[in-house]
């Protein structure tokens, strides 16, 4: 960790140039020749990345940032805050501490936490930053977490793991066994040290693949931020045998949309109907969950088709996703398309439809944007239709 960048003139320079183009700054002469110019530029770039994602770090003085990539890969503050609503206790150990955003918030819910990070420089950066941030109940271990666990007799209330994909695993189907640490292989050892584990994975992990590799899963949390899935969390408890609950959260500026259901529950039968007055499109967290029949049953709304994952109802309800009023339903044929949509401006979405958005736009000369929303889909009678809508929420 290079502390030379902590001098007040350099820190002022970093703050003043946050958000300025790095390629433009790189052409300037280094105003601090005693310090590596690349190091200063990296701090400016990483701090700029942190402005929206990590506002607490951005607004705190004398923060040292690791590489821009580390900032890009870390949890956002909003998802970290949400995770604190899921677990609490006396002690927690984070086996893959990274830049420490999750641990900063876990420290508010636990008496003591341990931050393990094999990269000694990153560990030192986090230790420095936590002093600036006023975190006093965190211990730091710049070592392989397996060694840290092996050399201690302590039992932890919770263990947190964010495994990273190995470089040689690129191109393969994403599996937890292809990550470091190898959680499926290490579970017996981990359960000697704790009874409760929270595992964070990338959103592209298939839920069924995760379940095939893990055991004792009690809850699966799917976290989206502004309708983009950011994290999957597998919550496992030693020897747990019972139903698995999938809990979704879509964190928006003014609210958080939540929905949950029990996996493989027998009682959730969907209903089907032709398009009614309103159209409902689930948020991305629900789409990732696969709980499409459960949405129909829980909100008492009808599916358009088994594979369309769009819903309709005659009534307007509060719904975790986008809501539209259907102005017109047309068949997908030459005459109707020419009459209604040729050379029009509209937002085009396809669901369970044989053609792509790009081809539809090209074929019918539909310009992007505007207040019209067109869903190209299939109804319960297997007819190809277009729903012409206005957005409500």
UniProtKB/TrEMBL annotation:
<feature type="domain" description="PG-1098 ferredoxin-like">
    <location>
        <begin position="278"/>
        <end position="320"/>
    </location>
</feature>
<dbReference type="InterPro" id="IPR029063">
    <property type="entry name" value="SAM-dependent_MTases_sf"/>
</dbReference>
<feature type="domain" description="THUMP-like">
    <location>
        <begin position="321"/>
        <end position="391"/>
    </location>
</feature>
<dbReference type="GO" id="GO:0032259">
    <property type="term" value="P:methylation"/>
</dbReference>
<dbReference type="Pfam" id="PF22013">
    <property type="entry name" value="PG_1098_Fer"/>
</dbReference>
<keyword id="KW-0808">Transferase</keyword>
<dbReference type="InterPro" id="IPR054168">
    <property type="entry name" value="PG_1098_Fer"/>
</dbReference>
<dbReference type="GO" id="GO:0008168">
    <property type="term" value="F:methyltransferase activity"/>
</dbReference>
<dbReference type="Pfam" id="PF18096">
    <property type="entry name" value="Thump_like"/>
</dbReference>
<protein>
    <submittedName>
        <fullName>Class I SAM-dependent methyltransferase</fullName>
    </submittedName>
</protein>
<dbReference type="InterPro" id="IPR041497">
    <property type="entry name" value="Thump-like"/>
</dbReference>
<keyword id="KW-0489">Methyltransferase</keyword>
């Amino acid at each position: 960790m290079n502390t030379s960048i902590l001098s007040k003139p350099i820190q002022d320079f970093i703050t003043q140039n946050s958000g300025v183009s790095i390629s433009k700054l790189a052409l300037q002469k280094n105003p601090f020749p005693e310090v590596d110019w690349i190091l200063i530029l990296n701090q400016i770039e990483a701090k700029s990345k942190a402005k929206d994602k990590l506002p607490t770090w951005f607004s705190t003085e004398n923060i040292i940032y690791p590489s821009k990539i580390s900032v890009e890969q870390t949890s956002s503050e909003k998802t970290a805050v949400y995770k604190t609503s899921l677990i609490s206790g006396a002690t927690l150990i984070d086996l893959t501490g990274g830049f420490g955003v999750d641990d900063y918030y876990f420290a508010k819910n636990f008496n003591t936490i341990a931050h393990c990070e094999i990269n000694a420089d990153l560990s030192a950066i986090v230790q420095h930053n936590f002093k600036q941030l006023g975190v006093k109940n965190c211990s730091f271990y710049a070592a392989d977490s397996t060694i840290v666990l092996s050399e201690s007799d302590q039992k932890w209330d919770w263990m947190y793991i964010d495994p990273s994909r190995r470089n040689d695993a690129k191109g393969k189907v994403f599996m937890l066994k292809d990550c470091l640490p190898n959680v499926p292989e290490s579970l017996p050892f981990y359960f000697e040290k704790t009874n409760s584990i929270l595992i964070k994975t990338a959103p592209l992990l298939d839920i069924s693949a995760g379940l095939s590799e893990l055991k004792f899963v009690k809850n699966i949390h799917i976290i989206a931020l502004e309708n983009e899935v950011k994290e999957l969390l597998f919550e496992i408890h030693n020897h747990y045998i019972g139903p698995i609950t999938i809990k979704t959260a879509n964190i928006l500026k003014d609210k958080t949309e939540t929905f949950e259901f029990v996996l493989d529950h027998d009682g959730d039968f969907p209903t089907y109907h032709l398009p009614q007055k309103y159209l409902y499109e689930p948020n991305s967290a629900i789409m990732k969950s696969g709980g499409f029949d459960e949405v129909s049953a829980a909100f008492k709304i009808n599916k358009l088709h088994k594979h369309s994952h769009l819903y309709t109802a005659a009534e307007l309800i509060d719904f975790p996703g986008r809501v539209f009023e259907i102005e017109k339903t047309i068949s997908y044929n030459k005459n109707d398309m020419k009459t209604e949509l040729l050379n029009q401006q509209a937002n085009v979405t396809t669901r369970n439809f044989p053609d792509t958005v790009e081809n539809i736009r090209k074929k019918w000369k539909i310009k992007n944007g505007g207040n019209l929303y067109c869903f190209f889909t299939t109804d319960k009678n297997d007819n190809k239709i277009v729903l012409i809508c206005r957005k409500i929420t």
